[in-house]
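ok so i was messing around last nite and threw this chain in just to see what happens. nothing serious, just curious
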Amino acid sequence: MSALVEVRDICKVYNPGENEVRALDHVSLTINKGEFVAIIGQSGSGKSTLMNMLGCLDVPTSGKYYLNGKDVSKLTDDEQSDIRNLEIGFIFQGFNLISNLTAIENVELPLIYRGVGKRERHRLAVDALKMVGLSHRLNHRPNEMSGGQQQRVAIARAIAAKPPVILADEPTGNLDSASSKEILQILKELYVGGRTVILITHDDGIAAQAKRVIRIMDGKIESDETLDQDFA
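result:
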């Protein structure tokens, strides 16, 4: 397997000097194409800062981050924005759906920014909503759907353009246990289908659903364990 994500000796320091906070303290890790990885840590552990680095939402104070072989730390803001748009599908705890758009319109919206033509855009959005079991809800607005259904629309939006990396930040945080199971099952299916899935969580039970668990504490990687799981 080839490396998709490569982090080398990354530090993120806030308030440099006497009262500095090291949110990330010399972190190094490699995630290969097609892995299903959970990054787990409690509030203040550095996991959210690490997610922001992996998602090109922030840059390290020092160290290197390579995504698909590109040195992200050397890119301009516009180039980082392009990478976020083309290479990463984001799933957040808050669904971030636009309330006056239907499910299919919410999924199509990022494809418009990518310059995808109308017919192709529609096809990709329908396919993505089918994949998450919402082909019967294409024309429903968020307020006509449950929380679990809204999160499935958000997943469809993240995967419609087939980005190589799916970055899911506490994707079950606002959901009941039944909806959480559905969302985790979809993430497993994406992994089985060849996507690279990176799941950020504070919950041991959620992290245990992945194939590999990286535990972070006080800005450092505490453990990195591969689990014996069969999703086939």
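not much to say yet. The mean pLDDT is 91.
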